[in-house]
Request: fold
Amino acid sequence: MHRDRRPALVRATWPIPILIALATIAGLIAALAGDGWHDLPAWLALAAPLVALAWARRGRR
Reply:
């Protein structure tokens, strides 16, 4: 029974951190790719870890 829960737990745990990492990488690439209209998507993508941190801290109170 313990073996059956482990894959489900992994699938439930990792999608959000992977999405945050991909958003951060995309934000860094957008910031390095150019100036002008690239700035807004870069700022939004780089804010993803901060938003996730604020959301997680709010849920613990």
Q: What stands out?
A: The mean pLDDT is 87. The CA atoms of residues 52 and 58 lie 10 Å apart. The two ends are 33 Å apart (CA to CA). The chain has one domain: 14-59.
